[in-house]
Design goal:
The complex is a heterodimer of chains A (388) and B (227).
Chain A lengths: L2 H8 L5 H52 L4 E4 L5 E4 L15 H4 L7 H6 L3 E8 L2 E10 L4 E8 L1 H56 L1 H8 L1 H25 L2 H6 L1 H16 L2 E7 L7 H22 L3 E9 L2 E8 L14 H16 L3 E6 L5 E8 L8
Parallel strand pairs in A: 6-7
Antiparallel strand pairs in A: 1-2, 1-5, 3-4, 4-5, 7-8, 8-10, 9-10
Helix pairs in contact in A: 5-7, 6-7, 9-10, 10-11
Chain B lengths: L6 E6 L3 H11 L5 E7 L2 H11 L3 E5 L7 H11 L5 E5 L4 H10 L3 E4 L4 H12 L11 H11 L7 H7 L2 H11 L4 H8 L3 H14 L5 H17 L3
Parallel strand pairs in B: 1-2, 1-3, 3-4, 4-5
Classes of the chains: A alpha+beta (388), B alpha/beta (227).
Chain lengths: 388, 227
């Protein structure tokens, strides 16, 4: 057998092996051509398109930050500013490359740790007369941290204005209350020193020299005169007493509290306890009046709203401070829900609180439904100044 | 003290009219001599120590310092000082305040001569004079009514209560709220409330006012015993 014969036999059109191989090669060829000239370009095009659209997206996103009306800062793990948006310029010129701590000394923590753990923190800082709330956010995938700054200056200015006008209003209210109190006192003093004294002296004269006057006026008319004077004096005294706590001014806080509570307890058939400790000397007029008015207001609340059977007033003067505890065993109210049944009562308590705070003291209330109410007041003592 | 000796009087009122009235009532009495007049509380103190009168007759309501306040200051330095007060008011609160300041009496500004002389005599004899209706018993009643009473025994309280309850009780007396107490003692508010309930039960205190009063006095007693 020779090789030529085998070759002939192999390449013979009738050989199935030859055919198989021939066709396989052709098919592979077609595959190759299709892949190279049709599939690959398509894939390439697709990838390009994808990349382009991603880029477009990224550009859009960048534009977002760029167009963000609030400053936006990106820093690396060292805290160096790597990127800012346009408006960040309000914070300072050419910030890029500087350390963020020059701008925000509050960042006294490790930026790297915040980035790694994707931590977020809220800061508040004043830069160039403007107030910013700052959200600091670590982004571990990008190895950067972003700072979103939000300008709160307008809001804070408004808040400050509001606070200022509220304080102004409060001051005005106190001033008004003081003025009313002063005016009442002035009026009372004038009536007392003027008309009231005159009436008393006239009556004194009538009584002291009655023999002479009885003869002049006649018995009947004389009696009528004396009675009229007594009536007028009594009426005037009642008016004076309403105008100012006379007992307070003349006899001091201890006696005035005793007298007031005794009267209220008697008229409302409530048990009272008064406990005044360490108040040996008189204290500042305004302080006396404030404490007296607070007690008046509290007792009026107690008898009007609480249904209490008993109240206690404890006042302790100690180490330059006055502690005042006013308690009752009435219905109380739910402190949490802040549901003070009666508007008047709520207003009264608020008024007390403000008056106490105005004098540099503190006011607390402790109460629960059906467990009574306790007012806790602390005030710094001011000594009485006797005006020369 | 015999009234045969001349009685030296210091008269104090901001209204000259009233001073004139009193002077005119006393001018015919040989045993009485008005040695000085004051127009306000400060002058009263000054003149008292210059003149050392046997008795002060003073208005209560005066400018700068009330008659009672001024007399309390005098009485601190000179325990033998005597004062009879004049007022348009005669309420119990006036009587108590005068009593507390160490004064001896109160008469109405409407007073007639006879009563004035009687009152001065009473006071100089070392008695009180608060008008015919107020005798020793009535005065006692007024004083009891107006003065603060102490009601408890510190030692006994400390025996009944646990240390924790004593702490809570004293903080209540120092005007702390349950929340404040909870924070200070590092307890929950509920625990503090339980202590409160236990304290009230153990000490037989039936209401919030009773607890507060007890707690306040407890703190004062603690301070006195230096704890």
């Amino acid at each position: 057998m020779n090789a030529e014969k085998y070759l002939d036999l192999f390449f013979n059109a009738g050989n199935p092996i030859f055919y198989s191989i021939f066709f396989t090669v052709i098919i592979l060829l077609i595959f190759y051509v299709v892949h190279k000239y049709i599939v690959t370009p398509r894939q390439l095009q697709h990838t390009n398109e994808l990349r382009e659209s991603e880029l477009k997206n990224a550009r859009l996103m960048a534009l977002f930050s760029e167009l963000n009306p609030s400053p936006l800062i990106r820093i690396d793990k060292e805290g160096i500013i790597i990127q800012t948006n346009e408006v960040t310029a309000v914070l300072g010129k050419s910030l890029e490359g500087k350390n963020i701590r020059e701008l925000l000394p509050e960042i006294n923590f490790s930026v790297e740790e915040y980035i790694e753990n994707e931590r977020t923190i809220n800061l508040f800082h004043r830069i160039n007369e403007r107030y910013y709330s700052i959200v600091f956010k670590g982004i571990s995938s990008l190895k950067i941290a972003q700072l979103y700054l939000n300008d709160l200056t307008e809001r804070i200015t408004f808040e400050e204005k509001l606070k200022y006008s509220q304080e102004q209003l409060k001051r005005l209210m106190f001033k008004q209350q003081d003025a009313i109190e002063e005016e009442k006192h002035r009026l009372a003093r004038e009536l007392h020193d003027g008309i009231c004294q005159d009436l008393v002296f006239l009556k004194m004269d009538l009584v002291n020299s009655q023999d002479k006057h009885r003869k002049n006026f006649g018995e009947e008319y004389y009696d009528h005169l004396v009675n009229s004077f007594e009536g007028m004096i009594k009426e005037l005294r009642a008016i004076l007493n309403d105008l100012k706590p006379r007992v307070l001014e003349e006899l001091g806080l201890e006696t005035a509290i005793n007298k007031l509570s005794e009267k209220i307890a008697r008229e409302n058939k409530i048990k009272r306890q008064v406990n005044i400790i360490g108040l040996d000397d008189r204290i500042d007029d305004k302080l006396e009046v404030t404490i007296f008015r607070i007690i008046q207001e509290s007792l009026s609340n107690i008898v009007k709203h609480s249904g209490a059977k008993e109240f206690d007033i404890s006042l302790i003067s100690e180490n330059g401070n006055i502690r005042l505890l006013i308690s009752d065993d009435g219905t109380g109210f739910d402190e949490q829900s802040n549901n003070i049944n009666n508007f008047q009562e709520g207003f009264g308590l608020k008024n007390i609180k403000e008056r106490v705070e105005n004098l540099g003291g503190s006011f607390k209330i402790e109460t629960a439904q059906n467990e009574g109410t306790l007012l806790l007041i602390e005030l710094p003592i001011k000594e009485k100044v006797y005006v020369p | 003290m015999s009234l045969r000796k001349t009685v030296r009087i210091l008269l104090s009122d901001d209204h000259s009219l009233l001073r004139t009235g009193v002077i005119s009532m006393l001018k015919d009495e040989k045993n009485f001599l008005i040695v000085g007049e004051a127009e306000n509380g400060e002058q009263l103190i000054d003149k008292y120590f210059k003149l050392i009168p046997d008795i002060i007759i003073s208005d209560i309501s005066m400018p700068k310092m009330s008659g009672i306040d001024a007399f309390a200051k005098i009485k601190k330095k000179e325990p033998l000082a005597k004062a009879l007060f004049l007022s348009m008011y005669e309420g119990e609160e006036y009587i108590y305040s005068i009593y507390k300041a160490g004064g001896s009496g109160l008469i109405n500004k409407n007073i007639v001569k006879g009563e004035l002389l009687f009152a001065i005599k009473k006071v100089l004899e070392g008695n009180y004079y608060f008008g015919a209706k107020i005798q020793a018993r009535e005065l006692d009643e007024i004083v009891t009514k107006y003065s603060t009473k102490k009601l408890f025994n510190l030692k006994k309280t400390n025996l009944i209560l646990t240390d924790r309850e004593m702490q809570v009780l004293s903080l209540i007396g120092e005007a702390k709220t349950s929340n404040d107490i909870a924070v200070q003692l590092d307890l929950s508010k509920r625990t503090v409330d339980t202590h409160r309930t236990n304290i009230m039960q153990k000490l037989n205190l039936k209401s919030l006012p009773e607890l507060i009063r007890f707690a306040v006095n407890y703190v004062i007693e603690l301070r006195k015993t230096g704890r």
